[in-house]
Amino acid sequence: MTEVLTVGTFDTPHLGHARLFKTCEQLGNVTVGVNSDEFIQEYKGKPPLFTFEERATLIARLGYKVLINTSAGAELIREVNPDILVIGSDWLRKDYLKQIDMTPDELDELNISLMYTPYTKNISSTEIKRRVANA
Ligand code: CTP
């Protein structure tokens, strides 16, 4: 079975996340790496709205295997060693490999394909927080 990994924060779950998970599911056996509260605090400078426990429990209830991601991503990716690493296409405009602290050579050596799936427009955790603030 093809092993598929996606890694993210998944704060305030939304349609974009659901579509990403569906794509992963269509590709194989899904593992979701969920960023730890400490990593989010360090990376974004503020805590998530939902705790790791809350975010991870919801994703696990959707039927996906959940692992905690405590750093940029490289450690978890090496540990899971998936066939495909899936991320949203918003990352086409940013340097995903730099973000996860891996090189193209390393992905090749591990036989990991990086796949971009279409970003769902007009929805994001940031957008939901904005809507709540304005409600
Ligand atoms: N994603 C997506 N479509 C969206 C939002 C996110 O496909 N509308 C994807 C991202 O590309 C990433 C994964 O979902 O692969 C997790 O993204 P995450 O940062 O947790 O979600 P966002 O809603 O974008 O959060 P934020 O607004 O805080 O950046």
Task: Walk me through this protein's architecture.
- 44% of the residues lie in helices and 21% in strands.
- It has 135 residues and is an alpha/beta fold.
- It is globular.
- It starts with a strand and ends with a helix.
- The mean pLDDT is 97.
- Cytidine-5'-triphosphate is lined by residues 8-10, 16-17, 20, 87-88, 90-91, 119-120, 123-126.
Strand content of the residues, in percent? Answer: 15-25%
Describe the strand arrangement of the main beta sheet, using strand numbers: 3-2-1-4-5
Mean of all residue-level pLDDT scores:
97
User: H/E element string?
Assistant: EHEHHEHEHHEH
Kindly state the percentage of residues in helix: 40-55%
Work out the radius of gyration. Answer: 14 Å
Oligomer: single chain
C-alpha geometry: globular
Secondary structure: number of strands:
5
Cα(first) to Cα(last) distance is 45 Å
Q: Helix segment count?
A: 7
Bound molecules: cytidine-5'-triphosphate
Uncertain stretches of 5 or more adjacent residues: none
- Which structural class should the secondary elements be placed in? alpha/beta
Q: Biggest sheet, open or closed, and with what strands and sense?
A: 5 strands, parallel
What keywords describe this structure?
5-stranded parallel β-sheet; single chain; 135 residues; 5 strands; binds cytidine-5'-triphosphate
